[in-house]
Amino acid sequence: MNKVVLYMSMSFDGMISGHDDGPGRGLGVNGEALHAWLSDGGISPGSHRPGVGVNAEVFDEMMQTGAVITGRRTFELAGGWGGDHHDGVPVFVLTRQLPDQPAPGHARYVTELESAVAQAKEAAGDRNVLLHGGSAARALLDAGLVDELVIHLVPIILGRGRRLFDDQGHRARNLELVSATEGADVLHLRYRVVSR
Amino acid sequence: MNKVVLYMSMSFDGMISGHDDGPGRGLGVNGEALHAWLSDGGISPGSHRPGVGVNAEVFDEMMQTGAVITGRRTFELAGGWGGDHHDGVPVFVLTRQLPDQPAPGHARYVTELESAVAQAKEAAGDRNVLLHGGSAARALLDAGLVDELVIHLVPIILGRGRRLFDDQGHRARNLELVSATEGADVLHLRYRVVSR
């Protein structure tokens, strides 16, 4: 059975982007530091793949997923990844309201959480599903639809920003640490969601 | 030179206590889970010392500190630790306003951050200073007075509660991971504060 795995870079104080982000602004002041591990020693121009070591392994694992679920905000901030997140796998973009225009490339808009997860798992076959984005993560966690969290914990206190776990009274969950692996300038923490 | 080291148990979503805490309420619903690692296999009745392994080592390290700095809220929630946090070392309790009554036992109230740190370091001699409590931690971090963070990261999402890092626009800090050590049901993360 394939799994839904959340992959997110997070600061030590829980931020997933800097405080001045917005469309066209990228990751904001200090927010860039959250993703610095993605390009350390990069050998592939135009790619975020770190060249070597643990970080490259984690990146490769992400890129071996067979479908993507994300939220509309993350999707638009990323410019829709040009319609192709990786290898042409389908990208399911959660949105409250379907836009007039269809999503570009391999992306499609979906309004129902359960349906998005079912479609993504089906499309991914025996590969896992990559979940990315704060509000998508929170919605799926609350709905008990996330199997694992892989958090790239970046050694920085941002002080301000957008949180992965906001204050909207989300459901309590027990986790189980699967592995803690040190990469260059980042600690990759893999947790299994125990109570769903 | 001795160091000021913050020791705090924190949930994966950044909470240091449950949502219904308050004087007499202890750690609140689910908040108890944050400190479960302190008593696993406990061999010392009346003590929080875990009996064995990594958790016992971390606990012993905390108890080898030569002074304590905390905030008044934490101090009062803990009942002032009966006037003796451990081994009769001095406890410096940060407060905005000096109460009419002196602090009990080995504790004393202080209103100035820098003075509290200077007094605690002096009193601790060649031992480190244990810093504990959310608001004390934030105040000292903002003032550049913290040398290391030892966070006992508990594998639970609380969903609600009181954060270690709140949203009051604190200063950005670079950290450096010193060690990530797995104990029973907890991951001990030690960071050095790089930019102060």
From TrEMBL, chains A, B:
GO terms for biological process: riboflavin biosynthetic process. Residues 3-186 form the Bacterial bifunctional deaminase-reductase C-terminal domain. It holds the Pfam family RibD_C. InterPro entries: DHFR-like_dom_sf, RibDG_C, Riboflavin_Biosynth_HTPR. It comes from the Bacteria. GO terms for molecular function: 5-amino-6-(5-phosphoribosylamino)uracil reductase activity. PANTHER family: BIFUNCTIONAL DEAMINASE-REDUCTASE DOMAIN PROTEIN, DIHYDROFOLATE REDUCTASE FAMILY PROTEIN (AFU_ORTHOLOGUE AFUA_8G06820). This is Dihydrofolate reductase. It comes from Microlunatus parietis.
